[in-house]
Amino acid sequence: MVKPLAENNPDTYKPSCAWILGHIGDRYANINQYSKAEEYYLKTLKIYKQLAVTNPETFLPYYVESLGNISYYAIFNSHFTDAERYANEALSLDSTQTWVKTNLVTSLLFQGRYAEAEQIALEIMNIELNGKPIKDAILEDLNDFESKGIIPSDRMADVERLRKVLLNYEQ
Description:
Elements: H1 2-8, H2 10-30, H3 34-54, H4 56-76, H5 80-93, H6 99-110, H7 114-124, E1 128-129, E2 132-133, H8 134-147, H9 156-168
Antiparallel strand pairs: 1-2
Helix pairs in contact: 1-2, 2-3, 3-4, 4-5, 4-6, 5-6, 6-7, 6-8, 7-9, 8-9
């Protein structure tokens, strides 16, 4: 029902469709159905990209946030190069979205690009995210990815190496 409204009156309804699709993606992510979450985030991303072209002042932040979200869920689906691409695009549009760099760190790490991942992690260590050091967010992500079996087995040594760097880092 919403889709025909959005097609007939895109300026009015497309933002609502994007928001709804994003929240559907969130719900799938909450029940660990990451393929479905990624599918809905891709739909959200497509709409926000169109809206950002015509009204960047209003919709570019939503597009950037969607890029960051899909980057995160691409990691859960072992789409590490996609996660890197989405994170880089988000950061090219808004370099202040440091939280997206946590996705970049893990996507590079899981691709076997330890030096790049470590360099980015060290560059952002003094930044706070939601009132905590960003290194805590990276460590939490690594723990979550490990508990869900996302980390490639041949990358576990690199993950442990980065964990040690993060845990021993003094601000």
